[in-house]
Amino acid sequence: xxxxxxxxxxxxxxxxxxxxxxxxxxxxxxxxxxxxxxxxxxxxxxxxxxxxxxxxxxxxxxxxxxxxxxxxxxxxxxxxxxxxxxxxxxxxxxxxxxxxxxxxxxxxxxxxxxxxxxxxxxxxxxxxxxxxxxxxxxxxxxxxxxxxxxxxxxxxxxxxxxxxxxxxxxxxxxxxxxxxxxxxxxxxxxxxxxxxxxxxxxxxxxxxxxxxxxxxxxxxxxxxxxxxxxxxxxxxxxxxxxxxxxxxxxxxxxxxxxxxxxxxxxxxxxxxxxxxxxxxxxxxxxxxx
Length: 289
Description:
Layout: E1 3-8, E2 14-20, H1 27-33, E3 37-43, E4 49-54, E5 69-73, E6 75-81, E7 96-98, E8 101-109, H2 112-119, H3 131-145, H4 150-164, E9 166-175, E10 180-184, E11 192-196, E12 207-210, E13 216-220, E14 228-232, E15 243-244, E16 249-253, E17 259-263, E18 271-272, H5 280-286
Parallel strand pairs: 9-18
Antiparallel strand pairs: 1-6, 1-14, 2-5, 2-13, 3-4, 3-6, 7-8, 8-9, 9-10, 10-16, 11-14, 11-15, 12-13, 16-17
């Protein structure tokens, strides 16, 4: 299963260090379970998105296990990809950037020709072959149609997909320089949120998060002093504050870290997909450990 990790410290700009698939004792085995790419997206001081991508298996790059990405931003978005559609190319590696926003996705959408027909001129935003980037283009289309309202754009795009496309899952994280959105739909995969107080539950600790299998690690000393909101496809530490989003629930973390949550999709997909409906590679991309 692909791994998602989003973090907002807005309005504070904090330094953070990320390791993606950094687990020296079992790197090869882990990366072969998640073999198709990694990416990290941030925003620079001017609010422009910046993305680093590795569109290949970590075990193919001997330097990869020794490297950590250090960066500063108000929001961060990391993703480890196991491809369901699209080859091993930078254009197919998450996160994607469109209209000053970053997006990463865990799930599968079917009937891509129908989705493309829905995009119209927004098809020009799509550079690769994935369902994820095409869905992001529809989100961008709907945000524009709703006068820049990101929550309304995500809701409209997800509702259209739930009614018109075969859907296995639409778990997503979208970030701007001062905001973070996350949607879990339906109940296929987990998506957790943690509203972390400054210093964490002990009040004096920096952020030190790691996924259970060591696929994603994140560290930030600045979050010993500042609040943050974290979204991840699994609990990243023992903090009791982690909460699983409800199926169909959209989370918005604003510029002051105020979080709002509401159900925007009350019904299951009209055309649900199961693992048996997916090809072998796509099915493997959606399975757990």
